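Notes continue from the previous slide.

Worked example: a multi-chain complex. Inputs as given:
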Amino acid sequence: MSNIRKLTYEILEIGNKQHTLGKAIDIFLISLISLNVLFVILETLPSVSAEYHRWFYRFEVFSVLIFTIEYIARVWSAIEDTESQHHRPFWGRVRYMLTPMALIDLIVILPFYLSMIVTGVDLRFMRVLRLLRVFKLTRYSSSMSLLLQVLHRQSRSISAALFVLFMLIIVASSLIYFAEHKAQPEAFSSIPAAMWWAIVTMTTVGYGDVIPVTVMGKIMASIISIMSLGIVALPAGLLASGFSEALKQRRRTYEKMVHMAIQDGVVDSVEEKALNQMRETLGISKEDAAHILHSNLDQKFEKEFERDLAQLRKEIDAVLHDRCPHCDHNVKWLERRKKGTSE
Amino acid sequence: MSNIRKLTYEILEIGNKQHTLGKAIDIFLISLISLNVLFVILETLPSVSAEYHRWFYRFEVFSVLIFTIEYIARVWSAIEDTESQHHRPFWGRVRYMLTPMALIDLIVILPFYLSMIVTGVDLRFMRVLRLLRVFKLTRYSSSMSLLLQVLHRQSRSISAALFVLFMLIIVASSLIYFAEHKAQPEAFSSIPAAMWWAIVTMTTVGYGDVIPVTVMGKIMASIISIMSLGIVALPAGLLASGFSEALKQRRRTYEKMVHMAIQDGVVDSVEEKALNQMRETLGISKEDAAHILHSNLDQKFEKEFERDLAQLRKEIDAVLHDRCPHCDHNVKWLERRKKGTSE
Amino acid sequence: MSNIRKLTYEILEIGNKQHTLGKAIDIFLISLISLNVLFVILETLPSVSAEYHRWFYRFEVFSVLIFTIEYIARVWSAIEDTESQHHRPFWGRVRYMLTPMALIDLIVILPFYLSMIVTGVDLRFMRVLRLLRVFKLTRYSSSMSLLLQVLHRQSRSISAALFVLFMLIIVASSLIYFAEHKAQPEAFSSIPAAMWWAIVTMTTVGYGDVIPVTVMGKIMASIISIMSLGIVALPAGLLASGFSEALKQRRRTYEKMVHMAIQDGVVDSVEEKALNQMRETLGISKEDAAHILHSNLDQKFEKEFERDLAQLRKEIDAVLHDRCPHCDHNVKWLERRKKGTSE
Amino acid sequence: MSNIRKLTYEILEIGNKQHTLGKAIDIFLISLISLNVLFVILETLPSVSAEYHRWFYRFEVFSVLIFTIEYIARVWSAIEDTESQHHRPFWGRVRYMLTPMALIDLIVILPFYLSMIVTGVDLRFMRVLRLLRVFKLTRYSSSMSLLLQVLHRQSRSISAALFVLFMLIIVASSLIYFAEHKAQPEAFSSIPAAMWWAIVTMTTVGYGDVIPVTVMGKIMASIISIMSLGIVALPAGLLASGFSEALKQRRRTYEKMVHMAIQDGVVDSVEEKALNQMRETLGISKEDAAHILHSNLDQKFEKEFERDLAQLRKEIDAVLHDRCPHCDHNVKWLERRKKGTSE
């Protein structure tokens, strides 16, 4: 029993590298999630919905069934996680059930069962929750986890930029409200209404549904749109620089591992396997990895070569000048001295 | 009296770290300002305004009262500032009253009293000034002060970019005016009118209220919009790079402090407290701080370990080769020489 | 025969540097391609098309003739490529024919011949394929190849950013569909229809043909447009940083070559020629190249000068202090010692 | 005569730093140019034009007079330029007259005289040329010259990015033409017409005057707008990074000068003056300059202090261990040896 649980855990959590079955299940679940998202989108097309309505329902039942089995298996095997604290049979599982990923897994299947028990549940509300299935893909996507990591590390500066943006939106919408309210009492009926204009303008979307018409309003809109160019670009710039910084850091981590692996001059099969797994985890392309390995080997051999050369040069020098190769003393003289005194 | 003044000063100015009362007052004032801004916004909604008009007025009276007390307390205690030159009882306070923050504090309460004395003051004018209360939040926001600092440091290059942008707007609006004036005499009635088009186009907002229709106008608009892509992005790019540079500098400042604190190998409670306060002032997250501390400690121990190792190796070498560990001399021989001469 | 084939290969593939004929053919082909693209564009203007229809057709026949000759010559001479594996007479040529550039060369001439054999082929379909001729320019453009190289190296991070963007588009379009479907059943008829709104908004194009009108829809649109500011800028930022990194790397490659060329202190005519060719291949401007050369020479001479100076200083010191210039021993004393013992 | 010419040259060309008169003339000319630009803009407002028409004309006559005198004085004194090759009385002046700045100076006054001689010259054409006066400001603006310098240095990479953008515009407009031509024969009447849509969409301006309506057109527009996000940002990114690189380089140039000036430990009045002029030429703020100076002084003193400390430590060590402070020999023993042998 415990063995089956352990196997289940490995297949579901980290199975995609080790087990062929794990890989197959990963691909199956990714396909199922993608199809689910696709079908929720297609179902809103009236023509498609009318014709394939029954098929959509059958697929929905099948999906919920699979997701339910997946959820139960995950909860059941969660206590096998060696790194976290979900070891105790009951509380460990409860703890796991409260993690964000487990909650999403629950939320995307729950409405289906609720609609069976309680009649009269809004079908549209259920559809919204079915769309959350797209977040189940996060588990399999290294880019999503990278983005979350960047957002977490840059959270302070990004929230600072957002705070400034927020203040600018308030000031901009208030100013435009006082400038345009009389001329366009409907479009700029209140400051909250003017906020819609402010956001549409400051993000440079510019639909054109609400446009200042007074001279004062146009002057303010001009100043606001020029000022917002800088402010609005701030979170984008911080996120982009954080993203590229994180990518560089992953590269450095890999370089360090390579550096350690080639300390002895060769990369044996064990080291190669470890490097390869690391490379996949960090999301580094094969070409890059090869490039890193070769430049590291080059550096190592270059350094060794230089050291050898320097040693050789010293020894030649020593021979030529009758000196100790270590401290540059005139050895000959010392020896002669020794002989002289011993004589 | 002087003690109370000093306490008032500490509570209002730097109280948020030391006094529990200071922290409470800070939170109270931030909430009051936020509510004020929120209510100015909500008041413009006709439905809300009609129903809660009296409550809004009562809240306004209450707010002005608090802000007046705050203003008087700040001016009264300003001469306690040890760093600045506001020491002389009268001129020191006048000087403080002329600082930007003090002027904002005054401007947001003054209209209320003026409207009591002078009847017939425009109520809308008063509302605009009430919105300035949002700037009172600047005092409590480290992100706002960071932005102001970046703007100050990059002012030269940003104003250079704005000057180029300004020239481009003039040239663009003139060109489009001459191209489109005949075809659309109303939309492009004059160069100032064409400027509205130029700004809306160059910031890529593109409302669509004024659009060139002639072939020549469209060609010019195409060239202008492509050229503006680079020019308009300049201030944004400079601001973003300045922002990220300032964040790095703060990090370095903190790193320096950590480096100094661990010189002796341990971080005692006094050092920890100082580091913590520094961390909060510079706006560095707890995780980052821990990361900096550990990597610094690692480096320190690594260096020490290497030094110890090198020393040890030297001494072993010396023993093995009968040499002085400091200058590599053959000590034995020297000693034997000494004995030989003393014999 | 083999010589002519080799000459053909050199003229067509790398001829632009060595052969005057190769240069002429390059210019001729670039002009022909550009004119082809221009004429496809002009042909869509009804007024132009009506008048010059026959001339366009004649030019088309002429172009296809030239491109056919070019294609045959390229395939015939492909086995002369020394670097790749296209050596075997038959399979080497088949292999070459399957490279992307060769496929484009074929596709842009094939429809013409097909329309002769099979009647009733859609003329519009042929025009689309004629436009692909613009990609034949890629062969001659170093900027295009630079971009492709950058795209290839950054493909992982760019596809990660695109995946996140894709998920955000799905979530945004679904949310706005549920918020606006009832109020605007035509504009937001389905999620795929809402996707059009989402993309237009998130890229900040903002045509204004589909705009949310409900309060909930406007709030969602505001959040989506602010969030997309950062996500949408990610691929752009990664591409830009990759581009500037690639340019720097090219510069470094050139600097290394310069460094090696001036090892002996002078740049002879052979080295100059090699550097010049390298410079053109890497797309470095003449000014930059001159700058790199001079700063390298300066550094070289500076270092040599410093080394000479240090040596000189040591020798002067030695003379002044009666010391061995190599190990700082008091030579005089040693000599006196020697004399003393030999006396 | 020659003296007056030299004075004229100094006042006009580099006078703003040395001569009070030069400064005054600079300010006067900048004001005159700015007023000219302002009046050309205002003149297009019908209400202003009607009322102040005569005043505008008088100001125009006055401006042309001044600009004519300025132009003659510049040409006359151009041969005083010590750096360039305009020394020969006649050809030197002709050469100067062909420089871009001199041509602008001529073009902005020429139409006025032409309209006097030749009647019937289009007044609107004259106005366009009057607007070129804005470029006379370039002479006085360090930001404009910085931008031109960056554009010149990055010209290769920016033109590469523009070439890619150009190809994308052609492909995008052709694709949308074939997709939308049938559905909207007027809006997408030809590929050149579709180019207007492509540029408006790819720069994310998005007026909304031409919008794809077919499903195929919308899909293509979506792909194009997402792809253009990266391509369009390329020139902007390159320009921004070039700008910030140029600013850093100016800073480094200044730092080098400071470094040289403080070699002797003090900054005398001559050095201070030179540094100040350099600072203004390079456009570095006073604060930055002070910061650079102090950090350089600090570094210098720190290094000296460390060197002194190391020397002191060595000497103490030597005294403690009876060793020569220079080569670590046991001096005492040597001396005793000497005495021993002399004894």
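Summary box: The two ends of chain D are 89 Å apart (CA to CA). Chain D has 14 helices and no strands.
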